[in-house]
Amino acid sequence: MEQKLLRSVFCLWVLASCLLLPASSNGLRRIGLKKRRLDLHSLNAARITRKERYMGGAGVSGVHHRLGDSDEDILPLKNFMDAQYFGEIGIGSPPQNFSVIFDTGSSNLWVPSSKCYFSISCYFHSRYKSRKSNTYTEIGKSCEINYGSGSISGFFSQDNVEVGDVVVKDQVFIEATREGSLTFLLARFDGIIGLGFREIAVGDAVPVWDNMVEQGLVSEEVFSFWLNRDPDAEEGGEIVFGGVDPKHFKGKHTYVPVTKKGYWQFNLGDILIGNQSTGVCEGGCAAIVDSGTSLLAGPTPVVTEINHAIGGEGVVSAECKLVVSQYGDLIWDLLVSGLLPEKVCQQIGLCAFNGAEYVSTGIKTVVEKENVSAGDSAVCSACEMTVVWVQNQLKQKQTKEKVLSYINEPAKSDGRINY
Fold first, then answer.
1. Which of 69, 140, 334, 393 is 20 to 30 A from 235 via CA?
2. What keywords were assigned to this record (predicted)?
3. Is 60 exceeded by the pLDDT of residue 2?
4. 193 closest CA partner among 150, 215, 164, 229
């Protein structure tokens, strides 16, 4: 099983290439990606924050090419300005087409159902009609998936799923009868196809990728992405099932073992900023590769460090600067004096204290909500992030004057992070 897991390597390449997808004779089958302009609603749709079963994704729609007689399936993808990459699949016999997100951060396949009567978003997307499929099998078990920005609910069904030239037999999927968020109404995709492990699948449904392997539809237990970051290119990229398209990379890839089945999770040794260790990964970190988001996400202190290094601006940055301008001297002096970092914000009154426990309003604790009577949550969180940042500056032997002058520094535009 371990050997099989290591062979099921997920290769993700984000190549800043301006090449269009050419005609090919290398035997690969492709699904192409397209780009569209990004707006706030689309970004929210692209980043579906996981709640219970952690489903989310980045979409797909496009055309498929079979090149040669190999067992590699290549599908072109559409790119919604680096936020959503989506392509087209077919469900049923004859196939009913849907634009879906290929998401490594989830494991279920779902599309809107023709029985979705009371969600307006269903009327703006393609809907699956079981009565029109000769290979449909009723299951009927109800299910629900919760997202940070909404939820979907429906019931399980079974039918054939066409992914490029590959037809996956008897695939269990979800017919969504309720889409409870404006996110889905504005999304450029109809549904989501999860490429994660079965361990995180709602209802223990076997994922499409697992069925591809078990039904012998691919020659290698490998799938790969090419994401085209050229905003003017018609082709947004491609996803390859059963191999790697050599036209879209040079040199060698680095392979890492999957450390935990669920997501495509691996060990992260360190995060470097300006070739210097941030110290945020002492003892090792776990990370996942998630095609369902255009963002780098992580613990608040780590993200704060990175944003500071690259000149990232925003609400959090502004709040942190406010804390530095008003309390920077005191925070520095308390840390130098040896006060534990987790006590600093409570000491200066920016986070609540119930007489026995430190209460960060940005971190879940055992303290009941009614006991938290002091400290604004945003300011408390900003203070905590500032403390972590100042502590790291101390470790790097920065001077107090240089650290506190950050409040007047202009944003940088060419910062780089090395992983």
1. 69
2. Aspartyl protease, Disulfide bond, Glycoprotein, Hydrolase, Protease, Signal, Zymogen
3. no
4. 164
Rounded to two decimals, what is the model's pTM?
0.66
Enter the tokens of residue 305: 């460090």
Options 82, 159, 210, 290, the catalytic residue: 290
Structure tokens at 371: 């006991």
Check residues 399 and 130 and name the one with the higher pLDDT.
Answer: 130
Rounded-to-10 torsion of CA 315, 317, 322, 326:
150
Given CA atoms 391, 392, 395, 401 in this order, what sign does their dihedral have?
Answer: negative
Contact in structure between 11 and 224 (CB atoms under 8 Å): yes
At a CB cut-off of 8 Å and minimum separation 6, what does 200 contact? 53, 54, 106, 107, 262, 263
Identify the helix (H) or strand (E) that includes residue 191: strand 191-194
State yes or no: is 69 an active-site residue.
Answer: no
Query: Which tens digit of pLDDT belongs to each residue from 117-153?
Result: 999 999 999 999 999 999 999 999 999 987 555 689 9
Both tokens of residue 383? 């203070």
The residues, any chain, with a CB within 8 Å of residue 319's CB and separated by 6 or more, are: 378, 379, 381, 382
Q: Are 74 and 164 in contact (CB under 8 A)?
A: yes
Long-range own/partner contacts, residues 343-349 (CB < 8 A, 24 or more apart):
344/383, 344/387, 345/380, 345/383, 345/384, 345/387, 348/383, 349/374, 349/375
Q: Which residue has the tokens 């502590």?
A: 391
CA distance 376 to 362: 10
**103 flagged as catalytic:** yes
pLDDT digit string, tens, across residues 333-385: 999 998 988 889 888 888 875 433 333 333 332 223 333 333 456 778 788 87
Domain ranges across the chain: 2-248, 301-418
Beta-carbon contacts of 5 under 8 Å, excluding residues fewer than 6 positions away, are 257, 258, 261
Q: Which residues contact 373 (CB under 8 A, 6 or more apart)?
A: 352
Find, among 283, 332, 280, the residue nearest to 303 by Cα. Answer: 280
Sign (positive or negative) of CA dihedral 255, 260, 265, 271: negative
Is there a cis peptide before residue 94, judged by omega within 30 degrees of 0?
Answer: yes
Superfamily holding 2-248:
Acid Proteases (2.40.70.10)
Mean pLDDT of the chain: 74
